[in-house]
């Protein structure tokens, strides 16, 4: 992999930011040690990052362990029902406190020297406290390191920056589009089963970009889906729709629309009617036209919603997948993938949606295999010495005017196949790397 000299890195970031404004982005960014290190230092140390869905820890004592950058975090529900997040590290000598990725425990006990904490992070037990410390150690001063958290519609986010803006400000107008994935009925959504979880030789940014609205690849990488009847659209109509982004925030969504696709098609009729009472009038007008929706919450949380025919040619079942791309090194990431289902839906529909998700975007899903094969090859190419100064074109739609008839917020252009969302994504990424956020 290529690596920039530290003295050159700041200049490279500024040149990259200028290139983004002109419709270019460097290939090297997708597999470079110095870029990865800078992302850890300036991006993941400050941005709001997704940790878990509240339905993963429904009961007192439930917990999961997740990551923000290179920091392992315990997200746990306390005995009072409140959710807490703490660095997964003992304050005595730094041992990992919780070695399981999920479970239930009211307390965590260090396997090294036995320090014991409530799952809220409070230190309550120190072996040989009186004999060893002779009153010099106060338990209240040595709690686990807390992580600031907040939530939106069941999504728990954390930030390592105590001075950062609120989560509401961070998400901004993109909450309008997030509701498309999260407010399926009055009870909202829940995760269905544990997340699929695997390692891949893929850079996280390729995935985040793809799910920020890349409808351009679908008729090529997934063309079999059209030919065999798994899509309720065709290659010629798939590009229709809108690309919506929140300027200056990095968030973006691609909304695919097919002229003959029924409003809220793929949902049970009773659920579709219930959603109309949950969404605002503007949301209902937009969402009822949407066939496929792929979106990314900056930096590395993405969603996809689409109908998928369990039997080719038959009406599709609408499913939602939520996915997190956790970087573990240059050109390498840990993938988490969940299925979201309407909490108030029937078991029959939940099972059908989960099956559609598994066949399409589970770890061994057909679409997932298409994507990861391409993403891994892009990542490998990005490490080549010859591409150190090679840029990719991001100029599609640079002259597009906002759609004056679209009632949703943000910068919205048509068609859905467009680079506008990507330029917005990389502009925000550049702001963080330049330490200007």
Can you describe this structure?
It holds the Pfam family Ring_hydroxyl_A. The protein has 437 residues and is an alpha+beta fold. Strands 12, 13, 14, 15, 16, 17, 18, 19 and 21 form a 9-stranded antiparallel sheet that branches. The chain has a 4-stranded antiparallel sheet with strand order 5-4-3-6, with no helix packed on it. Helix 1 runs antiparallel to helix 13. The longest helix is centred in the last third of the chain and has 17 residues. It is globular. The two termini are 28 Å apart.
Describe the secondary structure blueprint for this structure:
Elements: H1 6-21, E1 24-26, H2 33-43, E2 49-53, E3 62-68, E4 71-77, E5 83-87, E6 102-104, E7 107-109, E8 116-118, E9 123-125, H3 129-133, E10 148-152, E11 155-159, H4 167-171, H5 175-182, E12 189-191, E13 196-200, H6 204-210, H7 218-221, H8 223-227, E14 241-245, E15 252-256, H9 269-278, H10 281-287, E16 292-297, E17 301-308, E18 317-329, E19 332-342, H11 347-361, H12 366-382, E20 391-393, E21 411-413, H13 420-433
Antiparallel strand pairs: 1-20, 2-11, 3-4, 3-6, 4-5, 7-8, 8-9, 10-11, 12-19, 13-19, 14-15, 14-21, 15-16, 16-17, 17-18, 18-19
Helix pairs in contact: 1-13
Keywords: 2Fe-2S, Aromatic hydrocarbons catabolism, Dioxygenase, Iron, Iron-sulfur, Metal-binding, NAD, Oxidoreductase
Pfam families: Rieske (PF00355), Ring_hydroxyl_A (PF00848)
InterPro entries: ARHD_Rieske_2Fe_2S, RHO_NdoB-like_C, Rieske_2Fe-2S, Rieske_2Fe-2S_sf, Ring_hydroxy_dOase_asu_C_dom, Rng_hydr_dOase-A
